[in-house]
Design goal:
The complex is a heterodimer of chains A (401) and B (250).
Chain A lengths: L47 E3 L8 E2 L6 E2 L7 E3 L6 E4 L9 E3 L8 H13 L23 E3 L2 E2 L8 H22 L14 H9 L4 H26 L12 H23 L2 H11 L1 H6 L4 H27 L9 H14 L5 H16 L3 H4 L2 H15 L3 H9 L1
Helix pairs in contact in A: 2-8, 3-4, 3-8, 4-9, 5-8, 6-8, 9-10, 9-12, 9-13, 10-13
Chain B lengths: L2 E12 L2 E12 L3 E5 L6 H9 L6 E6 L2 E2 L5 H7 L1 E3 L12 H9 L5 H4 L3 H11 L15 H14 L4 E5 L7 H16 L3 E5 L3 H7 L2 E6 L2 E6 L1 H5 L2 H17 L3
Parallel strand pairs in B: 3-8, 3-9, 6-7, 7-8
Antiparallel strand pairs in B: 1-2, 1-4, 4-5, 9-10
Helix pairs in contact in B: 3-5, 3-6, 5-6, 6-7
The chains are: A mainly alpha (401), B alpha/beta (250).
The complex binds adenosine-5'-diphosphate, magnesium ion and zinc ion (ZN) (2 copies).
Chain lengths: 401, 250
């Protein structure tokens, strides 16, 4: 079998991809959703100690019996088959790379306060937080630590995340409309979570053409980096349960969303809103001088496309089994742009053709060595298409017909 | 007569060039004003800064008592002031009707008469004589037809003040009389016009007052007769720039 996410070849009974960590099968020890419909609790098995020396070559997983081969010096190992963690017994604790049980050497209280102020001053959401804060209590907690080699996999199944993505998309639409009403005042829409589409919308509205595409590409990357940072900084990870484990449902949900999106976009394209959006695409300056508030309508377009991106994102989380900011790296962010350009931008059929072609070619390229070069291959393909069919494949067909 | 538009000491520089060098004047309600000046005098820049397409470096634009300096063009349109472009900017991949209907979405009296944008667009297309071309793509039009399309977009907005940048360029004598007639009719209904035009003879038949610009400054304001016979205006046109203007085909 192959990893559904990165295409790496895996043992047929593997539960996790050893390369990217995606859940690939449903053979795990995780209990199936209860018949009552209540959310199933996924039990994250604590690391089970096993008596074995640090240089042991082979051992058996205590929960599923699968063979485990620790790499040299590893002390906590994840079973590739069932996902449970195994830690080697104390005699193995030899390859500690670094540890401390000593108090950190802060010279005095002022230096500690200085550090805290520095952090508060740079705060991401509120800058200069320290000016409006009073220090009420200081306590010292000592956390001794050991650094040991570990190969670990954590699965995060996300249902709350999915729901959140949906809410964010809906908020995106609302805020897009509100944003228009507010005359695009940017400061007013902080809200709760990071509404990525809106963020992108507001920032790139004043840019055009290639710069616009660049920014729409860069902001998701920056957001992913930011979330990644925010998550690892305080150590918390979304912990959510699967709603469905059945690929059949996931497929059908995707199909329904796709159909609704296609019909919606077709209706929009043939409405007055569509006419306005087309005029902005053709000539923004002219549209603006005819009384069309171009920023407002670009925001509406963003909100609309993000609504569906958000909906399908919710399904994606289930199909992937893992939601992590790193999922949305360069390849994943660039692919939709490639797909549109390949099939033909500014059409509804174009991106569908582009998606089928690119997704199809990715399937064909599911070989270990090639997968790392996929972005390169996709870029080459795009370059060739743009060279010979500047309007994309569908644009070419439409003009010919 | 009340003052519809007041422009105070408008300045705009492009690098080393001073395109507008402190331009001030007023337009009254219902007035039909012409702007003349040699190429590069700053006429188009003046329209750009008044209509919101460009932000002036300094100075004020007050329309209907509202300070519109630096406002976005669509907001200024909603207040009742629009402009057409010297180089027409039609939406080439949309039909002629769609081009005008788009403008009709922002029509001033849309709520009052309940006319659909498409109906309003058709009516204006009839006025400028493009009715038969309504369903053609704009890219199929001739230069003259595109210019008339631009005027139609301006007219359908049904505004209080329309700035027209060389609407007669590329037009045949017949087309000029069609457009002039349409403008004169709107003017009689109380709409004000400011019109930049190189074809002085046709312009003088329409306007009641002329402003002459040269090198970013107003050099003369007066009736068509006064301006045409002014010493400095003649010098600006004939003495220095006429050769250049002619060689550029303007
Ligand atoms: N966007 C621009 N960038 C730089 N220079 C400009 C720009 N627009 C106009 N100019 C300059 O400003 C001057 C006035 O131009 P313009 O207003 O177009 O004149 P007119 O319409 O009277 O022929 C010219 O010297 C022109 O080169
Ligand atoms: Mg000009
Ligand atoms: Zn993988
Ligand atoms: Zn196991």
């Amino acid at each position: 079998m192959y990893c559904i996410k990165c295409g790496t070849q895996l043992p047929d009974d593997a539960a996790f991809c050893y390369k990217c960590g995606a859940k690939v099968g449903f053979t795990s020890t995780q209990p199936a959703p209860s018949a009552s419909g209540g959310p199933a609790q996924s039990v994250s098995s604590p690391a089970q100690p096993v008596l074995a020396g640090a240089d042991v070559k082979e051992l058996k997983c205590p929960s599923c019996g699968a063979p485990i081969t620790p790499k040299f010096g590893e002390m906590v190992i994840t079973c590739e088959y069932c996902g449970s963690s195994v830690s080697l017994s104390p005699e193995g604790w030899r390859s500690i790379q670094k540890h401390t049980m000593f108090l950190p050497t802060f010279t005095d209280k002022d230096r500690v306060l200085g550090l805290i102020h520095q952090v508060m001053d740079r705060g991401i959401i509120h800058r200069h937080l320290q000016e409006s804060s009073t220090l009420e209590e200081m306590s010292l907690t000592m956390v001794p630590y050991w650094l040991v080699p570990v190969s670990a996999r954590t699965t995060v199944v996300a249902a709350n995340v999915a729901a959140e993505v949906g809410t964010v998309a809906a908020t995106g639409v609302l805020a897009g409309i509100l944003g228009g009403e507010m005359g695009g005042r940017r400061g007013g829409m902080g809200g709760g979570g990071v509404v990525d589409g809106l963020l992108t919308g507001a920032t790139s509205l004043r840019l055009r053409g290639h710069f616009f595409i660049m920014v729409t590409l860069l902001i998701p990357l920056a957001t992913a980096d930011f979330l990644n940072y925010a998550l690892t900084e305080d150590g918390s990870i979304f912990g959510v349960n699967a709603l469905v484990n059945n690929t059949y449902y996931i497929y059908n949900a995707s199909l329904v969303i796709f159909a609704v999106a296609a019909v919606t976009f077709f209706a929009v394209a043939n409405s007055r809103l569509g006419l306005v959006l087309k005029s902005i695409r053709e000539n923004e300056v002219a549209a603006e001088s005819l009384g069309i508030n171009t920023s407002k309508f670009k925001m509406v377009a963003f909100a609309l496309s993000n609504l569906f991106a958000g909906m399908i994102g919710a399904v994606y989380v289930f199909s992937n089994g893992v939601a992590s900011p790193t999922d949305f790296g360069l390849l994943f962010s660039a692919l939709p742009v490639f797909m549109c350009a390949l099939g033909g931008m500014g059409t509804i059929v174009g991106p569908i053709i582009g998606t089928i072609l690119l997704e199809g070619s990715i399937d064909l390229l599911r070989v270990n060595y090639i997968q790392d070069a996929r972005l390169l291959i996709a870029a080459l393909l795009l370059l060739l298409v743009l060279l010979f069919f500047p309007k994309g494949i569908w644009g070419y067909i439409k003009r010919g017909g | 007569m009340s003052q519809l538009l007041i422009v105070k000491d408008l300045k705009k520089r492009f690098g080393g060039i001073s395109a507008l060098n402190g331009v001030s004047f007023e337009i009254n309600t219902g007035e039909f004003v012409g702007i003349i000046g040699p190429n590069g005098a700053g006429k188009t820049t003046f329209f750009n800064t008044v209509s919101g397409s460009l932000k002036p470096d300094s100075g004020k634009v007050i329309f209907r008592g509202v300070d519109i300096t630096g406002m976005r063009p669509s907001a200024i349109v909603r207040l009742g002031l629009a402009r057409t472009f010297q180089l027409v900017k039609p939406f080439l991949n949309l039909s002629v009707l769609e081009n005008v209907a788009l403008a009709a979405l922002s029509r001033r009296r849309r709520e009052h008469d309940g006319l659909s944008p498409e109906a309003a667009a058709l009516e204006v297309l009839r006025i400028v004589g493009l009715e038969a071309r309504a369903d053609n793509l704009a890219s199929k039009l001739t230069h003259g037809e595109l210019k008339r399309l631009g005027v139609a977009q301006g007219l359908v907005l049904d505004l209080l003040l329309l700035l027209l940048d060389e609407p007669f360029g590329c037009l045949s004598a017949e087309e000029i009389s069609i457009v002039s007639e349409a403008l004169r009719e709107r003017s009689s209904l109380g709409v004000s016009f400011v019109i930049i035009e190189h074809r002085v003879r046709e312009l003088m038949k329409l306007v009641s007052r002329v402003i002459a610009l040269d090198q970013g400054s107003v050099i003369k304001v007066g009736t068509p007769d006064e301006v045409v016979n002014d010493e400095r205006v003649l010098e600006a046109f004939l003495g220095r720039s006429s050769g250049i203007a002619r060689s550029k085909g303007n």
